[in-house]
C-alpha cells in the first residue's frame, strides 16, 4: 500500500512530520539493497517547464550508492542529450525518517526532500520529491525500474499515485525508450562520479555530435541552470 497520508501531507503542507512518522515503506536494514542502477521509467510533476517538453525526455539512469559519510547517500544521474552523455552527481543527507533524504543547494537556495515511497528493491521504486525555494513548491513523482521495461500494472499504479499527489494527468509521462540509443547503452562504462551538481559532457563514438544543451530550471526560467528540473 502506498503511503498516501504522508504524501498528501507533503502536497497540502500540513503537519508533514506527523504524517511522515506513520511510516514510509522502506526498511533501513535493506538500504544497501536499493543501491545500484535504476532506469528512469516515468515522471509526474507540477513543474510547468517539464510539462512543455515532456515529449523530449529520453530514458536515463540513476545510480545510488553509499555516500562520502555514513549519513549520506550518493546519486548519479546519467542522460543522453543531443548526442552527449551528461552526468550529475550529488550527496543526499539521511534523516531520522527511514527512506527520507534531503539535499540543499546554497547557490540557488533550493531544498529538496526525497522520499522512497514504495519499492520491492529488486524490480521498481517510486520516489516522491518535494522541492522548495523562494519561487514556491514543486512536487515530482518518479518511477524507476531495475530494467528498462516494467509491468503495465506498476505504471498504472504510478499514474494513480501521482494524480493523488495533485499532479495533473497530462503532466505524467513515460520516458522515451530508444533501446540501444538510450543513455543506459551509449553511456555505459562512464566513470560513475563527477563533481556534485555539475553536468559533464562525455565523449561518444562521434565527438562531432556534441551540441551544448542547457535545462532551464522551473524556479528561475530566465536563468540557465543545468539539470535542476530532474
CATH architecture: Beta Barrel
Uncertain runs with pLDDT below 50, 5 residues or more? 12-23, 190-230
CATH class: Mainly Beta
Report the span from N to C terminus: 26 Å
Enumerate the strands of the largest sheet in spatial order, edge to edge or round the barrel: 1-2-3-4-5-6-7-8
The major beta sheet can be summarized as: 8 strands, antiparallel, barrel
What is the CATH third-level topology name?
Lipocalin
Proportion of beta-strand residues:
25-35%
* Number of individual domains: 1
Molecular shape = globular
Instruction: Give the topology string: H per helix, E per strand.
Output: HHEHEEEEEEEHEH
The strand count comes to 9
The average pLDDT score comes to 73
Class inferred from helices and paired strands: alpha+beta
